Amino acid sequence: MIYKNFSLKQNKILQLLFVVFILLFSVQILSGCGSSNKAADSAKYESQSTTTAESEVAYDQDAGMGNAAINSGNIERKIIQNVNMAINVGDVEAVMDKIISLTSQNNGYIVNSSMYKQEDTYRASLTIKIPQEKLNNTVNTISDFGEITRNETYTEDVTEEYYDAQARLKVLEAKEVRLISLLDKAANIPDIVTIEKELGNVRGEIEVIKGRLQYLTNSTSYSTIDISLRQAMPGQLKAPQGTAGKAWQGLINSLNGLIDFGSDLVVFLVTVLPWLIVLALVYYLVRYIRNRRKNRSDS
């Protein structure tokens, strides 16, 4: 009886071990399938990384070819040209109107303009944009509006930067297309999140490069002219141009100083004239009273 009970217990233990073995075997099979899926995903992203690396190599090659083309002179150069001018004029307002009209005639536009009075002098400042091919003619015309006291030209060659940005943009746009294709094929959430993050980074770089290209295009197509106008003081003598002007400059400065002194003297006399009249009246009144008293005492 004891032996029979022991045999029954042994059979139950064997059955339990068999069930546990089946469960472990099933878990192992499921784990193997998961590993296969992960391996497939890894292979896919390795392929994506390889493609991206190839794109970067292609970009480097394009940039190198671009530099070679720039050095050989086979492409249009991109040059930024800006001018800074200062002019003494007879009538600030009239010259401002001429510059605005000239800008419109040359298919340019006004960036900003202002006119103000500083002490006894009227001043104005303008910033205009002119098509680069019309820059020299515009500057020459403006120079005839008065006496040039400053005329500076600034030039910057951005050819390499411009074409390098274009090559970079092409590579990023191609990468964007590939990422969109991978996003459509993504089968699980982690893949979707990863691809969308990379796609956002790529699109951000594309927008930055497009903005820079737009700035470079505008800056190389239109030149900026900064103009400062100063109205010449009335009565000021000007030295003649050339060597004779240098010889007479000292005399002219002395005469200008004399004119300034005379002008200040007139202003001073006009200012104190009411007080002089009052003092003269008081003087004559006191003198009249003294003379009258003196006449009485003599009588």
Description:
By secondary structure, the protein is α+β, with helices and mostly antiparallel strands. The chain has a domain at 79-159 and 225-231: Alpha-Beta Plaits (2-Layer Sandwich), CATH 3.30.70. It has helices spanning 2-72, 92-105, 135-143, 159-185, 189-221, 243-298; strands at 79-89, 109-118, 121-131, 147-157, 222-231. A five-stranded mixed beta sheet has the order 2-3-5-1-4. The protein starts with a helix and ends with a helix.
Alpha-beta classification: alpha+beta
CATH topology of the domain at 79-159 and 225-231: Alpha-Beta Plaits
Q: CATH top level of the domain at 79-159 and 225-231?
A: Alpha Beta
Largest sheet: 5 strands, mixed
Structural Rg: 45 Å
CATH architecture of the domain at 79-159 and 225-231: 2-Layer Sandwich
SS summary, helix count: 6
- The whole-number mean of residue pLDDT values reads 77
Which descriptor suits the 3D outline?
A: elongated
- Proportion of helical residues: over 70%
Bin the strand percentage. 15-25%
| Spatial strand arrangement across the major sheet | 2-3-5-1-4
Distance between the termini: 182 Å
The SSE order reads HEHEEHEHHEH
The unreliable regions are 1-6, 32-47, 49-65
Q: How many E-type strands?
A: 5
In a nutshell, what does this entry contain?
By secondary structure, the chain is α+β, with helices and mostly antiparallel strands.
Features:
299 residues; alpha+beta; Alpha-Beta Plaits; 5-stranded mixed β-sheet; elongated; disordered N terminus
Strand and helix map with partners:
Elements lengths: L1 H71 L6 E11 L2 H14 L3 E10 L2 E11 L3 H9 L3 E11 L1 H27 L3 H33 E10 L11 H56 L1
Parallel strand pairs: 1-5
Antiparallel strand pairs: 1-4, 2-3, 3-5
